[in-house]
From TrEMBL:
This is Endonuclease V. Keywords: Cytoplasm, Endonuclease, Hydrolase, Nuclease. Pfam families: Endonuclease_5. GO terms for cellular component: cytoplasm. It comes from Streptococcus oralis.
């Protein structure tokens, strides 16, 4: 089973900010959703670039506790090694969940000195994100 984070939505009300974590568990054989849960609570940490885990992960972990079906792998809209300190939300989540995690970010999280070439124009094409000689991640064309 795969768990993919459906989203975390910030909501402001009465000078407080709340977050909503939505999770889906998907059967990896047929990609059918087998469970959905959500959890909302007050956000206790303001948004700071590079510190997303401290803001979102407490809500996500609370939502994971509600799951009846425990996933084998968790996918996040976020980064792991492609992070200024090589510890994005994906690394934090793996530690707390005790499960493998992977980051599937929809945007380029630019790290100074890290470069990539856009992949060729066909589905499945990919290139590496490299800084010096270290591979930080990959760019995948998935349309």
């Amino acid at each position: 089973m795969l768990c993919r984070r459906g989203g975390l939505i910030p909501i402001e009300e009465n000078d407080k900010e709340y977050g909503l974590a939505c999770l889906e568990v998907v059967d990896r054989e047929n990609l059918q959703v087998v469970e959905e849960v959500s959890f909302h609570d007050e956000s206790r940490v303001p948004y700071l670039s590079g510190f997303l885990a401290f803001r979102e992960l407490p809500l996500i972990l609370a939502a994971v506790k509600l799951l009846k079906i425990k996933p084998d792998l968790c996918m996040f809209d976020g980064n792991a090694y492609l992070h200024p300190r090589h510890t994005g939300i994906v690394i934090h989540a793996s530690f707390f969940l005790g499960k493998p995690t992977t980051g599937v970010s929809k945007n380029d999280y630019h790290i100074e000195g890290a470069e990539f070439v856009l992949p060729d124009n066909y589905e499945g094409a990919c290139t590496e994100i490299v800084r010096n000689v270290d591979i930080y991640g990959q760019v995948l064309r998935n349309f």
